[in-house]
């Protein structure tokens, strides 16, 4: 029996993205695996009045259990109301790699799914994406596809090098698959080690603008868009970590992208780093502490503050709920 996301109080991305494209901002897509991450995301977005996409990867689903995650998302909707914020909340599968996984998520209350067929040959990617779209749209669930391959490692997604999205393919892909949004590869990458230290990180905004010309107004998604803030990396290392060469995407480049057709920006590694820094600090400064609430609480607060900053200064989504 399929659980309708509408009964849970979730929304799909269709209206969210239309408003974001028109308004020149991007919706935050924040990954979560546990309660503290979910609390921080909802607190941050309610406080700054931002719509939000709660992202669950295949790995997170295995880690946390699909039934628990579904009820956590349902709880998140009620929690946002308790906090006084009636914000739009979407539950999205991040990097679904099979039709079966997407179908299972749709049946358990997800309001949006990503089918990532980018590792397949082009025609196979089209075929797989279209299959998911045809199933999802029966339940008014929106679908994100992907063209191009991002380098880096995050959860179960791994690639050695970039394959930039080819602008000449996007029109054909969108028309043949019927997708609601398109993830592109323009130099962002998964994980904390995106660029070599000392380089001048740049994403290919020229490719983005060419894609915009070919599919004007169509919702574009950026994966692997953590900025890996130097102060957070320094804090991790100060308290015993070893993140020597972690470099991310400059925030001003992401803000420029968000003013265009990019209406969803995925951020995960920055949140992991912020929580890790806060936990390491407690462990070093209070080595006798063993109550999980005493280190997960500060980690949750650090994540909330980081995500409030992202919504306000990077994505431009604050005040858009």
Compact summary:
By secondary structure, this protein is an alpha/beta fold.
Give a topology summary:
Blueprint: H1 5-8, H2 14-23, E1 27-31, H3 35-48, E2 52-57, H4 58-64, H5 66-82, E3 89-96, H6 99-107, E4 112-115, H7 122-136, E5 142-147, E6 152-154, E7 157-159, H8 167-177, E8 181-184, H9 205-214, E9 220-222, H10 230-238, H11 251-258, E10 262-267, H12 269-285, H13 292-315
Parallel strand pairs: 1-2, 1-10, 2-3, 3-4, 4-5, 5-8, 8-9, 9-10
Antiparallel strand pairs: 6-7
Helix pairs in contact: 3-5, 3-13, 6-7, 8-9, 10-12, 12-13
Task: Please give a structural write-up.
The chain is an alpha/beta fold and 321 residues long. It is built from 13 helices and ten strands. 48% of the residues lie in helices and 15% in strands. It is globular. The mean pLDDT is 92. The longest helix has 24 residues. An eight-stranded parallel β-barrel has the order 1-2-3-4-5-8-9-10, surrounded by ten helices. The protein has a single domain, classed as Aldolase class I (TIM Barrel), CATH 3.20.20. Helix 6 runs parallel beside helix 7 and helix 12 runs antiparallel to helix 13.
């Amino acid at each position: 029996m399929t659980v309708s996301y509408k009964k849970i109080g979730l929304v799909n991305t269709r209206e969210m993205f239309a408003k974001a494209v028109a308004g020149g901002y991007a919706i935050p897509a924040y990954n979560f695996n546990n309660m503290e991450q979910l609390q921080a995301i909802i607190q941050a977005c309610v406080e700054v009045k931002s719509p939000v996409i709660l992202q669950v990867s295949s790995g997170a689903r295995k880690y946390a259990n699909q039934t628990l995650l579904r009820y956590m998302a349902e709880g998140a909707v009620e929690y946002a109301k308790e906090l006084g914020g009636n914000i739009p909340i979407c539950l999205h599968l991040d990097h679904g790699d099979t039709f079966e996984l997407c179908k299972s998520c749709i049946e358990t209350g997800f309001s949006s799914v990503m089918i990532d067929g980018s590792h397949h040959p082009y025609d196979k990617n089209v075929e797989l994406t279209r299959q998911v779209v045809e199933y999802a749209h029966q339940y008014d669930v929106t679908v994100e596809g992907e063209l191009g391959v991002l380098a880096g490692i995050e959860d179960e997604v791994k690639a050695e090098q970039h394959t930039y999205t080819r602008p000449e393919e996007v029109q054909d892909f969108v028309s043949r698959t019927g997708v609601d949004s398109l993830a592109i590869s323009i130099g962002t990458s998964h994980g904390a080690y995106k660029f070599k230290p000392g380089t001048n990180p740049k994403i290919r905004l020229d490719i983005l603008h060419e894609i915009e010309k070919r599919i004007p107004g169509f919702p574009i998604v950026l994966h692997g868009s953590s900025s890996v803030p130097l102060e957070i990396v320094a804090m991790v290392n100060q308290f015993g970590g070893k993140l020597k060469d972690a470099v991310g995407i400059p925030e001003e480049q992401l803000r420029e992208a968000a003013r265009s057709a990019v209406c969803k920006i995925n951020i995960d590694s920055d949140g992991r780093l912020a929580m890790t820094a806060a936990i390491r600090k407690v462990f070093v400064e209070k080595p006798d502490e063993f109550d999980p609430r005493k280190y997960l609480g500060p980690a949750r607060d650090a994540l909330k503050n980081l995500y409030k900053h992202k919504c306000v200064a990077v994505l431009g989504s604050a005040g858009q709920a």
